[in-house]
Amino acid sequence: xxxxxxxxxxxxxxxxxxxxxxxxxxxxxxxxxxxxxxxxxxxxxxxxxxxxxxxxxxxxxxxxxxxxxxxxxxxxxxxxxxxxxxxxxxxxxxxxxxxxxxxxxxxxxxxxxxxxxxxxxxxxxxxxxxxxxxxxxxxxxxxxxxxxxxxxxxxxxxxxxxxxxxxxxxxxxxxxxxxxxxxxxxxxxxxxxxxxxxxxxxxxxxxxxxxxxxxxxxxxxxxxxxxxxxxxxxxxxxxxxxxxxxxxxxxxxxxxxxxxxxxxxxxxxxxxxxxxxxxxxxxxxxxxxxxxxxxxxxxxxxxxxxxxxxxxxxxxxxxxxxxxxxxxxxxxxxxxxxxxxxxxxxxxxxxxxxxxxxxxxxxxxxxxxxxxxxxxxxxxxxxxxxxxxxxxxxxxxxxxxxxxxxxxxxxxxxxxxxxxxxxxxxxxxxxxxxxxxxxxxxxxxxxxxxxxxxxxxxxxxxxxxxxxxxxxxxxxxxxxxxxxxxxxxxxxxxxxxxxxxxxxxxxxxxxxxxxxxxxxxxxxxxxxxxxxxxxxxxxxxxxxxxxxxxxxxxxxxxxxxxxxxxxxxxxxxxxxxxxxxxxxxxxxxxxxxxxxxxxxxxxxxxxxxxxxxxxxxxxxx
Length: 621
Prior knowledge:
Layout: H1 5-25, E1 32-34, H2 68-71, H3 78-81, E2 85-86, E3 89-94, E4 97-100, H4 112-117, H5 124-127, H6 138-142, E5 146-149, H7 152-158, E6 161-163, E7 177-181, E8 186-189, E9 207-208, E10 222-227, E11 234-237, H8 238-244, E12 247-255, E13 267-268, E14 274-275, E15 288-297, H9 298-304, H10 309-313, E16 326-334, E17 340-346, H11 347-351, E18 358-363, E19 366-367, E20 377-379, E21 392-398, H12 405-408, H13 442-453, E22 470-475, E23 480-483, E24 488-496, E25 503-509, E26 517-518, E27 520-522, H14 525-530, E28 540-547, H15 550-557, E29 562-572, E30 598-604, H16 607-620
Parallel strand pairs: 1-6, 10-21, 23-30
Antiparallel strand pairs: 2-3, 3-4, 4-5, 7-8, 8-9, 10-11, 12-15, 13-14, 15-18, 16-17, 16-21, 18-19, 18-20, 22-24, 24-28, 25-26, 25-29, 27-28, 29-30
């Protein structure tokens, strides 16, 4: 049963009161349960449990004998710890060690409010839900904040509470949707299944959740439309949308702005330093899907609210002169502290009669599923998935971009020399190379403000809106062993370029890129007929049977295996091409990643041995 927002606010207040009560009861022996009943986030320091990791450790019991250097830390009492719960002075503890995270409050990828929620308390119960914290690079990062230690008795009291999992009522997921993080759920399909259909089946479409999935009944859902330059603000029900506005259908390829983030993690930088990513999820490659969306056009909704969308689209009226520069979205999904998810796009995208922006209530011809925004969501074609706010509750026309952290902090691109954990500015007027302090670093704040304001508010330069051209080979999948009876290797995959650019060509290679040939491209005829230049929002499937070379055949004939490296190269309608390697455009947030995707494949001349090896690889995968 969906609760009203007023009821949810009361629950948040009650939860906050329980948190305060829990802090007061920590000196008692019985565990205290914090009934957090609403949403949660997916940042790196309050995130979740990926199934494909480079390093991970499990929660460990409190150490009876801390390391020698920790025993030399000054002793801090639990009472003193609990005095530091405000943003001006925020302390937390973990396994008996006390950390002053005051300087980290604005840089925390999971949100300032989430870090403050743990103020004066032990982090371990939170980490046990958001288990991304147990990746090997998180705890070492925390050591810079270490200021003291608790006694064994106080440490036991500090962790004597339960943080109730707010994701317990999330929907069930398909077994071929692989968990990248569990809390919140972020799942990518097995990529070998992506080429089975032009439209990704709903149950296999990648899922990017930042917070728990809200349970909203169709009859309870409301959409509030308001803001600068909206003469007649209104609230619409789902029935209103279907009755008042003609349904439009738009084919759109979504990709998470952080897809392939794991590629950026754990590599050696040019100066020998380790490149680490502190924001989750660490996608492998599959946060990439295609669907047909149905719903009401956003520009029609704005027109119903009195906005002269046609005159603005034709240039007769400049919306910017009226303070109408951006369209902000807010969802029903919320953090534990009541902060709703939000994003925004430039208003010109929504005003465009061919821009395809919808309030979507259908996905592939059926009602939008819970994981994808039931009952209705924003659908902004050609833009990064994070801009299409799910469980849409508000559309707000504004002169500024959304100030939600998912807009102005999480998905920003920086130069390759920046590091999340890097050194901060030293006060000499030069910007440091670290992001963890965020706008508490005055030089970094100056840079962020410039990037945001230099365009006179049109669009922050660092914010990811439109992603570059990409392609991935889906078949054969990684870790494949083929038998040597064939004369060719058949390559299949998916390609796309955002912003409506579409795909002109996909080149493929089986020898790591030494030799290339153009693949065959596929889109349904009805999609090709409807698309317009610069408005190509649906992805392109590609395939090619590539013959083995005479040398490869000779090697197989002699009984030796052949090792191939399959690679694809997308070329969009602007003739932008995927970069060969990632090093030149590494960024510390792990966004807009599009270097050529490589698939190692083994061809074995022994059919029985190849079949056995393939079964072993598939089982392991």
